Structures are given as structure tokens and as C-alpha cells.
Amino acid sequence: MVSKQNNRKWEIEKVSSASPHLWINDSLKNFDEVLPKLPLSLNDIEDAEARLIRFAPLISNLFEDTREMNGIIESQLIPAPNLKRSMSNNFDVDLKGRFFVKGDHDLPVAGSVKARGGIYEVLHFAEGLAVESGLFKTSDPYLIIKDDEIQSIFEQYTVSVGSTGNLGLSIGISASALGLNGCVHMSSEAKDWKKRLLREKGVKVIEYEDDYSFAVKSGREAAADDPFTYFVDDENSRLLFLGYAVSAFRLKNQLNQLGITVDSNHPLFVYLPCGVGGAPGGITFGLKHIFGNNVHCFFAEPVNAPAFLLGMLTNFEEDISIYDFGLNNITEADGLSVSSPSRLVGSMVKNLVSGLFTVADDDLFRFLYMLKESEAIKVEPSATAGFMGPIHLQHNPLGMDYIKEMKLAGSIENSIHILWSTGGSLIPDDEYVKFLERGNS
Ligand SMILES: *Cc1c(COP(=O)(O)O)cnc(C)c1O
Question: Is 381 in the pocket of ligand 1 (CB under 6 A)?
Fold first, then answer.
């Protein structure tokens, strides 16, 4: 028997070599052992959902693209049988189960999964500020927030954030629509069009020739001694986490509407692109509350930026960074290009996530092209990081061992696979054409 210690050392070496890798979590536990011990509960997710519902009339008023859904920011669950076929053909494997794309690439307002966590945290802050003013109670209609008196208070405040792009878009766009000021500290990966779009919306953009952790640190420091600046701390935010977690309720309803039940004979597999861990972690936390051991969550990271996987393998020690393992953080998946994981998220999901895998950039583009060809869905490179998941589980010996160990071999025919597509609807066409060309070469 190889000891866990030795095993981890080998895993770390493997991950440090920047080649694609699947890691099955040897610390996965029963959900009912884990959840009661965590500092956040189902109540907290319900509280977040209730806040989003209270805000819905105002959201609907502020953002035209949310009107159809009455101000609820949610994406579609899209059946993807053609993608399944295309993946089977491309990788010469026989994939089982029903395939879906969870379409967060097309979430209203911000065009990425950040429209969940980011906007939720801005709303939470705005609500607190309005209540504090004495001009508003949470039982009032939320449109009152647009009144001049409250707006004249809001305009004194700034919501600031460090971002590789998408978080900045969600925070900046929502803050400025609410009448707050937005300020985004952008790392060097951030795409020019994302900066341009923010500036057009009146958001202040500060650019750094450094990476994401540096941008976050700079933003955090700039906000620290300013009572009129609220800093959204992506590496350490319970509110972002809860905003993401709400998606689990929504997904449950969508599965119900399709008549799909999840149980031990119909296991649910969810594949989530991962940066600092907030989005996939929050979603996993929510899903575990609803589907327990019948949901299997896998996170996916670029081979050059496996911050969360290295966090898992080293128990999320302080100041852990991928650079210390000789990795360079270079990837076209700008949404996942982070050097350090969120330790808060690590502590929440280290016993809930089933495994992680890393993906080469070429495969991100290959899937991006395949998704367009098979289902006419437009996404950014970060959004396809999870697509290798079903192939790993059904055809990689390590994944197949997981299926066997979980006693799922007999139910894989009935399995449900959700590829969480996390961003892309706002990409300018000329950029997207280049992505397609790379994916088709
Ligand atoms: C931010 C982001 C993620 C991952 O979210 P984290 O909270 O950083 O783990 C995934 N995909 C896209 C497109 C993103 O922008």
C-alpha cells in the first residue's frame, strides 16, 4: 500500500509537470457527516435566495435582459445530445448518460457565472447601505432604492474588486447600475475588450502588469483605509460563495421540470471550471445540500494554473502559490488564471468535491469549437474546462475506479452529466472567430 503522504508527493510532482491530470479526492466524505460541521448552512443559502427574490423587481427595472425572467438572473439547462455524440466521435469513446450544458455563459447582466456571486455581493452591500440610511426597510418595495435621496448616498460609495475580467464585469456593471461607483483592479491577463466595456459603463479600471493575486492584494490595500470603499474579496468571500450556491435550488427546479430525478440509480455528475474556487465551490456546497451523495462534483483547471488542486494536495497552507511549484499561470482561460486558491472555499469543500482535473489550452479550444458546431453555443475558453470530465470518468482508469468504488457501474447508463459553461456571451465576434479557428486547427 502506498501511504497517502507518498501518494500526495507523487501527485504534486505530476501536477507540477503541467501535463493533464485527473485526481480523485481521497478525502471525500459522506455529505451528512460534512455539512453540519461547516460554518455556513442551508439557511444561509435560503437567505441569499430570499434576498435575490426581494431585489428582483429592481433588477428587472435596471437590466432589460432580466425582464423575461422577472428580474431573476438565471441560465438555461440545455440538453446537449449532439455534443455528447461529437465528444464520443472525437475521442473515440462510447459516452453514456444524458448530457446537459448549464448555460451560465449566457447569464444576464454579466455574461458569466460571476453574475451569480458578484452581483449577489453587490446587492447585499447595497441593501445594507440603504437600510443604514434609515430611508429604507427590507419590507419596502425595492424600487425605492432608485429614489434621489438614497441615490445621493449611494453615489458617495465605491464597490471595488480585483479581477482577471469577469468578476470585474459583474461587480462593475451591477454597482454602477445601482448608482454606486465601481472600481476594478485588473490583472495582466484581463482582455482589452473587458476593460473597454467597463470604462464605457463608467467604471474605473486600474491596470496592473502583474497577476491576479497581486491585483486582489492591491485592491484590498487601497480599500482598507477608505470607509467609503467596499472591497469584494474574491479570495475570501462568504457572500460570493452563497451567491453561487443559490444555483443549486434553481438547477433542482430545472431538473424537476424535465422530469429528471436524481438518486442512487440516477447519479448526477457536475463538471465545473475552477479559478480561486468560489464559483465551483459555492455551487458544490449548494448541490450537496440538495442531492447529497448522489451528486458528484469535479473541478477543472488549466494545466498551468492548478491553484485549487495544489491547494487540495497541500491542505491549503497559507500563501500557497502555483509559482512555488514551477508553474507559470499562462493560459487563454483568463477566468481561471489564478495563482492561489481561496482558503475559505478550500475549508468548505475539501471533503465534498469528488476530484479535480487539469486541461491543456488546446483542449479548451477544441471543445469550444465542438460546442459551437454541435449545439450552436458560443463560449469563452474558460467555459469548456470541465468538458473532459465525462471522458475521464468513463474512460480513464482512475475515473473508472471512482465509478466502481462508488458502486455506480450499474447506473452509468442512467447518469446525468452537467457541463457547467461559465462564460462567453459578451465576447466580441472578432475575438470569438479567432477562438474557433484555433479550435478547428
Ligand atoms: C471566475 C470564473 C470561473 C471560476 O470561478 P472561481 O470563483 O474563480 O473559481 C470559471 N469560469 C469563468 C468564465 C470565470 O470567469
Answer: no
In this structure, the answer to whether residues 18 and 145 fall within a common structural domain is no
Together in a domain, 378 and 427? yes
Q: Atom 10, ligand 1: which residue's CA is nearest? A: 273
Number of domains the chain is built from: 2
Residues 267 and 414 in one domain: yes
Find the helix or strand (DSSP H, E) in which 130 lies: helix 114-132
Q: Determine whether the shortest distance from the Cβ of 353 to ligand 1 is under 6 A.
A: no
Residue nearest to atom 12 of ligand 1 (CA): 335
* Domain closes at, from 198, 215, 237: 237
The closest residue, in CA terms, to atom 15 on ligand 1 is: 335
CATH number at residue 289: 3.40.50.1100
Domain endpoint, select from 204, 237, 270: 237
- SS3 state of residue 261: coil
Is the per-residue pLDDT at 1 higher than 50? no
Same domain, 321 and 203: no
Ligand 1 center–CA 329 separation, angstroms: 15
Tell me the residue range of the domain where 324 lies.
4-110+241-439
> Three-state SS for 11?
helix
320 and 376 in a single domain? The answer is yes
Query: Which triple of cell numbers denotes residue 314?
Result: 497541500
Is residue 414 domain-shared with residue 269, that is, in the same domain?
yes
Does the CB atom of residue 275 touch ligand 1 within 6 A? yes
- What pLDDT is attached to residue 3? 67
Q: Residues 367-389: pLDDT tens digits?
A: 999 999 999 999 999 999 999 99
Q: Quick one: 73 and 158 in the same domain?
A: no
Give 350's contacts (C-beta < 8 A, 6+ positions apart).
Answer: 25, 27, 312, 316
Q: Is the CB–ligand 1 distance for residue 276 below 6 Å? A: yes
Which phi and psi (to 5°) does residue 262 adopt?
-110, 120
In short, whether 331's Cβ falls inside 6 Å of ligand 1 is: no
Point out the ligand 1 atom lying closest to the alpha carbon of residue 308: 9
Best substitution site from 170, 344, 382, 419 to test ligand 1's pocket, by max atoms within 8 Å of Cβ?
382
pLDDT at 52 over 50: yes
pLDDT for residue 240 is more than 70: yes
Distance, CA 131 to ligand 1 centroid (Å)? 31
Ligand 1 neighbourhood includes 383 CB (under 6 angstroms): yes
Q: d(Cα 423, Cα 5) in Å, to the nearest integer?
A: 37
Residues 68-76, mean pLDDT to the nearest whole number: 97
- Burial per residue of 26-42, b for 16 or more beta-carbon CB atoms within 10 angstroms, e otherwise: eebeebeebbeeeebee
The model's pLDDT over 322-332, given as tens digits with 9 standing for 90+, comes to 999 999 999 99
Both 149 and 94 in one domain: the answer is no
